[in-house]
């Protein structure tokens, strides 16, 4: 099994199901599809396929800096946020790192590549899978060089408390701990600007953002990292492999921040369909759900004789099992919020699996 969602080709080949027939709830991609202007831009730029992209991505970096009211010296774009996870670890060369579990697999893989000693900090079900001020005590004891935290977390979809995050930023800055905050899903939270506004006043804070999920450009791959440590940003730019972002992704990234109607439509869709999925899934007594903040839901299946992943696959529905996340087992799942008809099909399939009457 893949460590990530969206492995449609692998699943279709393994189980003999046409990829075009699968409904993919395993990848947290905006079902509205990319903005129409993105499609037009790529179509009109096809002649540029024979040209190299700007190796410094000047216009892309300017667009990102303008959107976040910072300087281009604080910004580095990447081939998805994943490239930048590896880039920041390559720059920091941490000897000891603290990872919150469960969490995104690429933090661990990047650290392992550089021989970092990894200390796990478990987010338990008893604590609601949420970090609190006890994490600061752990940092005092463990004394790591760096800490990764995702806001919202993947796979739980939970958003840490704002006061806690502020305390964490201040603690790490004071104690010179590199704090890498993954805000890949924060664009789905319309009232949360994240921590980027604090970057200019800090030197140990690194913010990761993804444009892949919100703008539905998974095939293009685009993300960026912002930090007040301009020396670090410059060094990462100097060390990176040339042309890691293709021409079309770079061009698209220059216009996405101006897609205000699309952004508003996405927030409207999510408000409606997140509530629908939450209310429908909450009606299943076999499931325990955690209140979502982003475009996916996390839950536990308490009926051990039901293998929900394989059962839904028979309905040509692919969800994300979470048994390969540290700290979780085969009872835990994550599902993306999809379009209305797809969400209804998921609920109908689960009603059949759990032997409910469908009215």
TrEMBL record:
Catalysed reactions listed for this entry: O-phospho-L-threonine + H(+) = (R)-1-aminopropan-2-yl phosphate + CO2
Gene Ontology biological-process entries: cobalamin biosynthetic process
Pathway: Cofactor biosynthesis; adenosylcobalamin biosynthesis
InterPro entries the UniProt entry points to: Aminotransferase_I/II_large (IPR004839), CobD (IPR005860), NHTrfase_class1_PyrdxlP-BS (IPR004838), PyrdxlP-dep_Trfase (IPR015424), PyrdxlP-dep_Trfase_major (IPR015421), PyrdxlP-dep_Trfase_small (IPR015422)
Domain of life: Bacteria
EC number(s) reported in the record: 4.1.1.81
Protein name: threonine-phosphate decarboxylase
Lineage, broadest ranks: Bacteria, Pseudomonadati, Pseudomonadota, Gammaproteobacteria, Enterobacterales
């Amino acid at each position: 099994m893949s460590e990530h969602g969206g492995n449609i080709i692998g699943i279709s080949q393994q189980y003999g199901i046409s990829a075009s027939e699968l409904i993919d709830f395993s990848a947290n991609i905006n079902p509205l599809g990319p903005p129409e202007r993105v499609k037009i831009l790529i179509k009109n730029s096809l002649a540029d396929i024979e040209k190299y992209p700007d190796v410094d991505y000047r216009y892309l970096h300017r667009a990102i800096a303008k959107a976040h009211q910072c300087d281009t010296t604080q910004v580095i774009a990447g081939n998805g946020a994943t490239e930048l996870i590896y880039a920041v670890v390559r720059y920091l060369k941490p000897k000891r790192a603290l990872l919150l579990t469960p969490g995104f697999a690429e933090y661990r893989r990047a650290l392992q590549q550089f021989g970092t000693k990894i200390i796990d900090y478990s987010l338990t079900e008893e604590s609601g899978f949420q970090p609190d001020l006890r994490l600061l005590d752990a940092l005092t004891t463990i004394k790591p060089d760096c800490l990764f935290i995702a806001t919202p977390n993947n796979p739980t979809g939970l958003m840490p408390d704002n006061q806690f995050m502020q305390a964490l930023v201040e603690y790490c800055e004071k104690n010179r701990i590199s704090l890498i905050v993954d805000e890949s899903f924060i664009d789905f939270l319309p009232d949360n600007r994240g921590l980027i506004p604090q970057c200019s006043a800090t030197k140990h804070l690194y913010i990761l953002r993804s444009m892949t999920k919100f703008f539905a450009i998974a095939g293009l791959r685009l993300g960026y990292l912002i930090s007040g440590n301009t020396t670090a940003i410059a060094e990462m730019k100097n060390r990176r492999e040339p042309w890691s972002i293709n021409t079309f992704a770079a061009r698209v990234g220059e216009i996405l921040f101006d897609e205000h109607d699309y952004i508003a439509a996405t927030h409207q869709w999510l408000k409606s369909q997140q509530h629908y999925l939450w209310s429908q899934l909450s009606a299943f007594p076999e499931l325990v759900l955690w209140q979502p903040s982003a475009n996916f839901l996390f839950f536990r299946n308490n009926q051990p004789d039901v293998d929900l992943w394989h059962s839904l696959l028979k309905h040509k529905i692919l969800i994300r099992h979470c048994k390969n996340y540290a700290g979780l087992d085969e009872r835990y799942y994550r599902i993306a919020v999809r379009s209305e008809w797809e969400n209804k099909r998921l609920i109908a399939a689960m009603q059949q699996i759990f032997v409910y009457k469908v009215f």
